Amino acid sequence: MVELQNVSVTYSSGVDALNNVSLKINDGDFAFVVGQSGAGKSTMIKLLLKEIDATSGVVTVNGYNLGKLKKRKIPEFRRTLGFVFQDFRLIPSMTVYENIAFVLRVIDAPLKYIRKRVPYVISLVGLHSKTNSYPDELSGGEKQRVAIARALVNDPQLIIADEPTGNIDPELSYEIVELLKGINDQGTTILMVTHEHDLVRHFGGRIINITGGEIVFDEVISGVDEVLPEEELAQAMAEASAVTNTGNIILPDQQIITPDGAYAAPANDRNGGAE
Question: What is the pLDDT of residues 66-75, one digit of tens each?
Answer without folding.
Answer: 999 999 999 9
